[in-house]
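Can't attach files on this board, so I'm pasting raw text. These are the components:
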Amino acid sequence: MKKTICLTVLVCSLGVSMMLTARGDATKESGIDIADLAADAKAKVGLIGDMLATGESFEESIKEKKLAQAAGTLAALSQGITEHPQGKGTGIAGPALRDAAAALAKTKSLDEATKLLAGAQAALEGKGDGDVKADWAKLVNMHRSMDEVQSRFNQIRRLRRKPTTPNEDSIHASTLAILAKTIQADTHEVKNKADLPEWKTFADSLSDSSRGLAKAMKAEDKAGITKFYLAATKACAGCHAKFRD
Ligand code: HEC
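---
Top answer:
Structure tokens for the assembled complex are below.
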């Protein structure tokens, strides 16, 4: 009898703690749609494939730092997929994709890049593995990340006026939310430690507004789109005024 009670208590408390863990994970990524992340990761691998198509296109993507930008963004997206509660359901091997992408962002050799691309393509099919944990501050170079943030924000500005497909438009905002995570983590631009809370406020605001934007875009909620778009603009301008200019 005593044994049964103990067992029940044990099973119950195990159940509760599992529920809590599941809930904890879900809130961590709330507002970022896994389908958006998976679609954008696939698009990035395709784009990198185009960059590697010829010696000439490869040289140009190195010179213009476009490979570093695309691959760095892909590394962050992969980590987003890895940590997402529904990440496994995508069938993508997140850690392997992240590691291939991080190496692609750094390589200057077409031979090496071609091998890494094959690894990234295999990871999209679920092949390969790696450490589940990664440091968000080191996934993508801050300049490259800001260039991608700018390009995504330009797309969002255009789609705000002329929406196309709600579930595709939102991809830009979801990727912006992932880039915001890298900005939240990478505080090396903050020279004075006392300014860290201010950096966090701007970065959190970009994170919240891009998550809000993605939801509003999916729901075709015009007022919501405007509200979160303006909040994001304020986060960019405020942080630049304090930490960049
Ligand atoms: C939390 C702070 C912060 C936020 C929020 C932020 N930025 Fe930045 N941004 C910086 C800093 C610092 C730099 C300068 C360092 C660098 O370029 O790496 C920068 C640089 C840039 C650059 C120049 C990139 C380059 O190649 O040097 C662009 C473009 C940019 N940001 C766009 C944006 C846009 C658009 C947003 C909002 C959607 C935004 N940023 C939000 C801090 C921020």
